[in-house]
Amino acid sequence: MEKWDIYKERAFIENLLCQRFNFFILSFALIVTASATVNTTTLYNIILTSGIIICTLLFFTIYRIYTKLDIALKYIYENDKDSIFHEIQKRTHEYPLNFKNMNRLIGVFIPIACVLTLVILLCCGNNYTAHIQQHSPIFQNQ
């Protein structure tokens, strides 16, 4: 059996981050879709409130694994001078769309933006669903 090292740990953590992020995006999309298809304000509020709670909890798990990945990458970069990370770091600055840390985008900014989107939908969407219910012939027959 091979010895577990920092490179295997990094690969494992990075894979876990991607899986959790994909699950987060899927959950977010399902919540937005469900909120768009309901026909009562009560269901709309319930779906978005529970969605905010679920996505916030998922964000915490993503953020936790993101910090572990960031620590592992910094450890490799600082302690293994022969690794390919130094060459990759130099060459990434040559590209026009250069992001310093793409993992931070996946681990922090996108999940926060999604949760804030749900909060905005909850706050602003109540007025819209109430307006639709008053003026739509579909809802007046119910």
- Secondary-structure element order, N to C: HHHHH
Overall pLDDT confidence = 86
> How big is the Rg?
21 Å
- Shape from CA axes? elongated
Oligomer: single chain
Give the structural class: mainly alpha
Strand content: under 5%
Give a count of the beta strands, DSSP E runs of length 2 or more. 0
- Helical content class: over 70%
Distance between the termini: 66 Å
- Given as residue ranges, the uncertain stretches (5+ residues, pLDDT < 50) are none
Largest sheet: none
Keywords: Membrane, Transmembrane, Transmembrane helix
Give your account of this protein's structure.
This protein is mainly α. The protein is 82% helix and 0% strand. The protein contains five helices and no strands. α1 packs antiparallel against α2 and α1 runs parallel beside α4. The longest helix is centred in the middle third of the chain and has 39 residues.
Q: What's the short version?
A:
The chain has one domain. The protein is 82% helix and 0% strand. The chain contains 5 helices and no strands.
Write the layout of secondary structure elements.
Elements: H1 6-37, H2 41-79, H3 85-92, H4 102-135, H5 137-140
Features:
mainly alpha; 142 residues; 82% helix; single chain
